[in-house]
Inverse folding.
């Protein structure tokens, strides 16, 4: 089984699938914003930034998948970005459900001064409303916050397994 994980991790299809998933997530976010007219909050644009970071890490993984150290680095970077997305998704769900308070800074972007994504690309990364309820993805069953928790939680688990397996494979060869 561990050999199969290593083969999957070195597969271009694994990394391409991850890149396509990120592009789809960003496209869905923009569809909800510009077609369905659900403006993003601070947490939402932070999640978009983490998805972009996952995509860049996946591109790195695609390029470095045949290098032991490159694969470890790409897996670690993807895991860190997925962890950041999971934390923001948790705060979004907590804000929506009412068990997290004060996690949203209003219409401030909250980006560090060295990475002003809201100024570089406002159409994608500028918050336009306060945090609260997220739109339904599946009416009365799955909100956007629920979906983000499922996606980011699953991605953290997958990348944790891939990262640990890449370390194991590097030391066993």
């Amino acid at each position: 089984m561990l050999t199969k994980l290593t083969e999957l991790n070195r597969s271009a299809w694994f990394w391409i699938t991850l890149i396509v998933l990120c592009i789809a997530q960003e496209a869905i976010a923009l569809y909800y914003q510009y077609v369905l007219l659900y403006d993003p909050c601070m947490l939402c644009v932070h999640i978009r930034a983490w998805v972009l970071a996952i995509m860049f890490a996946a591109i790195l993984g695609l390029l470095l998948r045949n290098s032991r150290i490159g694969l470890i680095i790409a897996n670690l970077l993807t895991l860190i970005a997925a962890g950041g997305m999971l934390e923001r998704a948790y705060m979004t769900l907590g804000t929506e459900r009412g068990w997290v308070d004060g996690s949203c800074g209003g219409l401030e972007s909250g980006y560090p001064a060295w990475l002003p994504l809201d100024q570089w690309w406002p159409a994608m990364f500028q918050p336009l409303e306060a945090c609260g309820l997220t739109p339904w993805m599946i009416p009365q069953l799955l909100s956007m916050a629920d979906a983000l928790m499922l996606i980011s939680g699953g991605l953290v688990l997958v990348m944790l397994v891939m990262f640990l397996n890449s370390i194991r494979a590097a030391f066993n060869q």
Notes: The chain has a mean pLDDT of 92. The chain has one domain: 2-171. Residues 32 and 38 are 6 Å apart (CA to CA). The helical segments are 2-10, 12-34, 42-64, 68-97, 117-120, 122-125, 144-171.
